[in-house]
Amino acid sequence: MIKFDNSEPFIKPKGIKFREGQDSNIRLPKVAVGVFSSHLYKDIIEKFSTKEVGYISGANLERNVYIIKYNGILITFFMAGVSGPWLCADMEELHAQGVEKFIIFGNCGVLDSSIEDCSIIIPTLAYREEGSSYHYVEDSDSIEMNPKYRDDFISILNKYNFDYIEAPTWTTSAFYRETINKIKKYQELGVKTVEMEGATIAAVSKYLGIDYFTFYYAGDNLDSVEWDERSIYGETNLDKKKEVAILALELAAKISD
User: Fold this and answer.
1) Is 20 within the bounds of a domain?
2) Which of 7, 134, 181, 256 is the most buried (most CB within 10 A)?
């Protein structure tokens, strides 16, 4: 059992890392957009004015951090680590470098086949079946999601004529253990999506005392006799996913100070 402990951490984040010639004293723009898709990450870098300012590193991978300009607003931009442990480290390091608000978005599985591919889901509650969130907030079966910016985001969805639903999500650490019994259990609780980071984002943000918003675009379908992959793979329905990315940038610009 994971036991929550609110005492001081032994290892503290120092911020992002820098290459030769980069400014190690830089303070990042307060609003950061993180995307899980490498295809959308590359598309945004190519499409908008960007400046590489450092990187996030792990034992076997480096991901560049950028400052991008969108509608005249400077925004921190990064490729988010997939899974709670990876993402909580990203958030800690970027927060240490000046980020105070996170917008993080990506693909999810759906537990309701009526949800169309690539449509938008706003999570309202996350059932915690992963580990990372339990290190940041007290034990509970679930955690509230998106207490801020929901109305702002919905106004953007309406502007761009996107359909959406609001519903609970199921955050898990083991996608090959999304069993038939668990799918039925969460369907009975009104859960519409399954993913790997939602509860972690909420818990880390609460612990750090910072704001966030996270949303999903529908991918694979688990409400079927056999697994329906739909657009879970990055290049499938990519043009529609590129439209979804604009929603995150619009919200970032809207909530920038």
Assistant:
1) no
2) 134
What DSSP string describes the chain?
------SPPSS-----B--TTS-TT----SEEEEES-HHHHHHHHHHSEEEEEEEEE-SS-EEEEEEEEETTEEEEEEEPPSSHHHHHHHHHHHHHTT--EEEEEEEEEES-TTSPTT-EEEEEEEEEESSGGGGTS---SEEE---SSHHHHHHHHHHTT--EEEEEEEEES-GGG--HHHHHHHHHTT--EEESSHHHHHHHHHHHT-EEEEEEEEEEE-SSSS-B-TT-STTTTHHHHHHHHHHHHHHHHHH--
CATH of the domain at 111: 3.40.50.1580
Q: What is the largest CA-CA distance in the chain?
A: 55
Q: Residue 189's pLDDT is what?
A: 97
pLDDT at residue number 225: 87
User: How far is 151 from 35, CA to CA, in rounded Å?
Assistant: 21
**Which residue segment(s) compose the domain that 167 sits in?**
31-255
What pLDDT was estimated at residue 36?
95
Residue numbers of the chain with a pLDDT score lower than 70? 1, 234
| pTM, rounded to two decimals | 0.95
pLDDT computed for residue 203 by the predictor = 98
Residue 116 is predicted with a pLDDT of 93
Any domain includes 37: yes
Residue 233 is predicted with a pLDDT of 82
Count of domains for the chain: 1
Report yes or no on 214 lying in a domain.
Answer: yes
Flag whether 200 is in a domain: yes
Rounded Cα gap, residues 228 and 183, in angstroms? 14
